[in-house]
Design brief:
78% of the residues lie in helices and 3% in strands. The protein has 429 residues and is mostly helical. It folds into 2 domains: 192 residues, MFS general substrate transporter like domains (Growth Hormone, Chain: A); 218 residues, Up-down Bundle (Growth Hormone, Chain: A), CATH 1.20.1250.
Length: 429
């Protein structure tokens, strides 16, 4: 807990976190408004198109964002990621009809632009925190980054629904734009960190360098594999929450609202507790433990038909998933050379996003034929089995951690990636 209090005393980190929360809140309010306006204008198919429009840029732009982060630094990407959605929301005001609806084509364009801005935020945000926070507080700083998504999920969606009910999509767009502007102004107060990879060369060469490094980085590859597994199966509950509430628990839309808020609360808890847990049991062991426990909780969630029990299990699933993400991100940042952190992070994010799309489509289709319970139980069992396989192939992950200076260690000994199989270095006096 001391590390959480310590990082929150850092003025630069407080301003960064405020800007990040503005980004999360703005996106959730915008999504609520645009999906509702799309539904008013068309059907659920229109909403599906808008969901794809806001998600697609992340898949396309994550890797370029990583390259740019290494070349020009994270600051300007954070600025663009705050300015662009504000401009998109302001432009969207002119496209809203008097009855609050918006035609699908312009709605898709506005949504895509907000998605572009959001895609430019994630990678540079993590790199910015890694470079601006003292090593002894870095674990807590990365864990607290989840507040961007948790506050958006808890407060942004609810506020978006309230604003839409009061003044339609136009008012919601205006509120979102104002919040994005506050975030942009806050970003401008941050130190302007430049790029660390000043060697030049084209984008492809930079990516080849990062891929070549990854080929000799077994610890990082293990973390990438576990992250992809989480996106493919461990997050299977997310697209099934509505069906879970309706078909398994019998709680309807009210239950869905409770479950959604509960997942956000679990994420907030992970922001506070993930770093202390990682310090106590070790981050590598923590990544494995949280994945296994999260999978077991998801199995229970799929079988529960009591709302109170499901709420508790979902809070555990969300907490454990976010804690895994924080510990894995901390390990990966410590393992990666500073000058290529943007590229390596973006490659890992790209794989995770691709698996998330595949997983969402797969679990949605399977739930129709096999049912929600079977899908959640099957996904949980698969996660446990694959985690066991990864540990069997690279057991050192259970001894992976970071020292007080945020340098990677295996069993307490300094460790360096990128040397074939990765090597623990001998103790030095």
């Amino acid at each position: 807990m001391n590390s959480v209090a310590g990082v929150l005393r850092l003025p630069t980190y407080r301003r960064f976190l405020a800007a990040a929360i503005c980004s999360g809140m703005g996106v959730w309010i915008f999504q609520t408004a645009i999906y509702w306006a799309g539904l008013q204008s068309g059907s659920t198919a229109s909403v599906g198109i808008l969901v794809a429009a806001i998600s697609l840029p992340s898949l396309i732009l994550t890797i370029p964002a990583g390259v740019l982060t290494d070349r020009v630094g994270p600051f300007w990407l954070l600025f663009i990621g705050s300015l662009s959605p504000a401009l998109a929301c302001i432009g969207g005001l002119a496209l809203v009809a008097p009855d609050g609806s918006i035609a699908l084509d312009p709605a898709t364009l506005v949504t895509f632009m907000v998605g572009v801005a959001y895609a430019l935020w994630s990678v540079p945000a993590l790199v910015y925190v890694t470079r601006s926070v003292p090593p002894n507080l870095l674990g807590a700083a990365i864990s607290l980054m989840v507040l961007q998504y948790a506050t958006g999920r808890i407060a942004g969606g609810a506020l978006g629904g309230l604003v839409v009910s009061m003044g339609g999509a136009g008012l919601a767009f205006g509120v979102s734009a104002a919040i994005f502007v506050v975030g942009m102004v806050t970003v401008l107060t941050l130190p302007r960190l430049g790029g660390l990879d000043a060697r030049g060369g084209n984008t492809v060469r930079g990516l080849v360098e990062a891929v070549s490094w990854l080929r000799g980085a077994p610890a990082t590859l293990a973390l990438v594999a576990l992250g992809a597994l989480s996106s493919l199966l461990a997050y299977a509950y997310i697209p099934l929450l509505g069906a879970l509430s309706r078909d398994v628990i019998g709680a309807g839309s009210a239950g869905l609202g409770i479950l959604t808020a509960t997942s956000g609360i679990g994420m907030v808890a992970s922001g506070i507790l993930a770093d202390p847990v990682g310090k106590r049991i070790g981050r590598g062991r923590g990544v494995v433990a949280t994945m296994v426990l999260g999978a077991l909780s998801m199995i229970g969630l799929g079988q529960s038909n009591v709302l109170v029990v499901s709420v508790a299990l979902l809070a555990a699933v969300a907490f454990l998933g976010s804690a895994r993400s924080a510990m894995a991100s901390y390990l990966m940042q410590s393992l990666t050379p500073a000058r290529m952190r943007g590229r390596v992070t973006s490659l890992a994010d790209f794989v995770a996003q691709l698996m998330s799309i595949v997983g969402s489509l797969a679990v949605g289709g399977l739930a129709v034929s096999a049912g929600v319970t079977a899908v959640l139980v099957g996904s949980g069992v698969a996660v446990v089995l694959v985690v066991g396989l990864v540990v069997a192939l690279w057991p050192r992950i259970l001894r992976m951690d970071v020292d007080r200076e945020s340098r990677p260690v295996v069993g307490g000994r300094p460790y360096v990636e990128g040397r074939g199989s990765g090597v623990p270095l001998p103790e030095t006096s």
